[in-house]
Specification:
Layout: H1 2-26, H2 33-36, H3 41-94, E1 111-114, E2 120-124, H4 141-151, H5 163-175, H6 185-193, H7 203-220, H8 227-241, H9 251-259, H10 268-277, H11 290-306, H12 312-319, H13 323-336, H14 344-361, H15 365-374, E3 378-381, H16 385-395, E4 405-415, E5 421-425, H17 426-436, H18 448-462, E6 468-479, E7 481-488, E8 493-498, H19 524-537, E9 544-547, E10 550-552, E11 555-557, E12 568-571, H20 572-577, H21 581-592, H22 594-603, H23 629-640, E13 644-645, E14 651-655, E15 661-664, E16 671-672, H24 676-689, E17 694-697, E18 700-703, E19 717-722, E20 728-734, E21 738-745, H25 766-781, E22 795-801, E23 823-829, H26 859-862
Parallel strand pairs: 1-3
Antiparallel strand pairs: 1-2, 3-14, 4-5, 4-6, 7-8, 7-21, 9-12, 10-11, 13-16, 14-15, 17-18, 19-20, 20-21, 22-23
Amino acid sequence: MILNCKLKKYNCFVYLHVIKFSERCIGFREVKRRDLMKYTRDEIDYKLEEIVYGDKREHNRRVFIFKMGIIAVALIFMITVCSFGIGLFSGIFANVPDLSNVSFGPEGYASKAYDTEGNLIATLVQEGSNREEVTYEELPEDLINAFVAIEDQRFWEHNGIDLRSIMRAVRGVITGNDAGGGSTITQQLIKNNILKGGNEDGIALYERKFQEWYIALMIENQPGVDKPELKKQIITDYLNTINLGNNSLGVKVASRGYFDKEIGELNLSECAVLAAITPSPTRYNPITHPEANDERRRLVLKDMLDQGYIDEERYEEAINDDVYSRIAQVEATRESQPSEPYSYFVDELIEQCLEIFKERLGLTEAEARDLLYSGGLTIETTQDPEIQAIVDEEINDPDNYDTAKYSFTWRYSIQHEDGTQTHYNEHHIEDYCVNVRNQRYDGLFRSEEALQSIIDEYKATVTLPTDTVIAENLETTLQPQVSFVLMDQYTKEVKAICGGRGQKKYSRSLNRATNTMEQPGSVFKVISSFAPAMELNGATLGTTYYDCEYTLGEKTFKNWWRSGEYFGYSNIREGIEFSMNIVAVRCMVETVTPSEGVEFARKLGITTLIEEDKNPATALGGLTYGVTNLELTNAFAAIADGGLYGKPKFFTRILDQDGNVLIDLTGDETERVMKETNAFLLTDAMEQSMIYQTKWASGYTVNTTSTRAHMDSMHAAGKSGTTTNNLEVWFVGYSPYLTAGIWAGCDDNQSLNDTTTGVYNGGTSFHKDIWRKIMTRVHEAKSLEDKEFEVPNGIVEIDICRKSGKLPTSACRSDYRNHGNAVYTEYFDEENVPTEYCDHHTSSGRIEVPEEDRNKTTDDRYAGSSSGGSSSNPVTIPTAPVEIPQEVPVETAPAEAQPTFSDPSNFGPGIGLDYNYN
């Protein structure tokens, strides 16, 4: 009852307010009674519910919408974050290398070069590649345990990542207490060898960490893989990879570098030293920071003790080991015996390897260098250590030179009181000697003491007491200089090479045998004139050219001996034996053409010729740039090999790190550039040039030019060369086994024997003596028996006239200048024998001089006046065909009678008149 009354009272109250609210809401000023009658109890209850709960419902609706908005935003945020995370991790793992094609072993191994006896002659290394591979079996147990104990104590149990180590590292970062890193050995291997990481920061660091974890798990959880064997491979690759300071990568190189020991000889203390280096190769370097290394070494040993790898006794023994004294001794010994620079042979070996990598493997220059210096290659070189030792000994034997002088480079810098600087060099010394001392100066000094005295004298004139010397550097070079190349003509393998006499101070320094181009002198006559004349144009050793003063345009060519002496008609054999300039030039001009001569030399491997060299002076070796000793010697090796050319080789094979053959030159084919018969004919003429003979005329003679190189114990053939004013001298020759070339001269082109000023810098024959000594010793050392050059099939002997190169007549046997007989026996290719008869002799034995050369000091001077071929005595011409022998004896025809002469060593080239000679 009470509740009902209260409700009624409340309803009335509410009702009145509803009326007022309705009027206010509807906007009426008064409510008509009939409108109020529309509000029934149901309608009133509905209105009351709207009044009481309407605001609350609106509030709830707004709250609901707000909450739904928050949920929507949260969902969008979560979706975005998840999408970002998925994208991030997709990107991270998308950058993971294809593990099926990646090598987990270390990269950047040093390459090794070995001679023909298997001796190591060079380690080719660059920063990041001084590493040698070691197998698991070679690793001492203490060494493995030392690294595991300090770096990854659960290495043998975990599956690539160590969660406890990771949490320890995270806790250390949060608390600021460095408790060690969280990376396992597997992760470190991945970082070093696959991801190439270590220098990242920010997001890149975390990206690399995620990749490490992923790859580590993939590696160590491969199905069907023997886990213990996998762990052994990982620790082996890791120990081959790590940087241990002093450009030592891997434990094998570090063992040698710090202890001068092989890896298997390390004791426990030394193993701990290496394991201590790992966190910072600079900070823990046992040479430069022994205290820091020792502190960590003790930690390594303590961990090994705690983890049961060693007992207390071994621990105490290792702790008390004075290992750093031994390291200091090894370093002191190394400093007192600095590493030798690469030899001249290795210098050129490097060049050849790089070129072949680019040519045969299609690599760029940078790629070729990376492969050579960090590919872990095994290079089987052609260097014969016994031969190389002989070459080096003779080239550097002071007894082989009758003079020694010194050239120099000098740099001197001083700072004056006002702060300005002045710099001086060797050219200032030259000015001082010429303009102040008023003396002749050629840049050479008889002793280093004499040079230093002049330098000190000059310094005193330019340096004030208030000046400060900033820097001074003086380097001297022994003069005259020499280069030498010795090779097997059949395999094209270079057995020994020397790029200069005196101490070699730097790797990849000036190599006079391969890097410098020198004028070849008369050596080039064979290459550019006589060989192409025979090979391309049908000339023979008997083909003759008129020797007299010869002018082409504004250039007049003369012979190398005394001015005004000529021999008239002379053949190619004589042109080689006596190094006759006119014969060589006329041969090129009248038979070959300069263009053919240059192209033929290129076929023999001479790469330094240019279009401007297509001129007659090339017949005498007067080139724009010159030639290298290596290329010139190799060209003669082609002749020695019966006309077969191949590029010179400094190695036979190159093996990759796994022992697979990467490059093999042993199967390289040679190219025939000359008929075997023509090669033999040139060889025979060059062999005769090494035997003492004379060519004579009324009142004068000239002798063969290569006799100083003659070997008593071995047949040999060769050609000498000397350039204008004796600036450079050459001899290139060969035996039936080996070919060698020697060059000698001064680096700044001072004359070896200046006939104008009288300055003497070694003379023009000492190089032949050196060639003879080296070749004699080499043949004896290799027990090579003397034998003659093999006569190939197709060679025949024919009697011909020396003056025409044709078949002789009766007049040829009455020649005034040949003791009544100008007929001799010559070798020919059977397809190129002469068929015509001599047309140069008159019936009286006189010579028909070419019309353009009459009235010159030539054949007509000694054969009487020319009558234009008329004679009271007719010339008898045989009517029977010439018989060509089928069997050719090895010995050549006996030399014609010669005037008597003194010791051959007293004979030599005369004054150089022009261009290159002898």
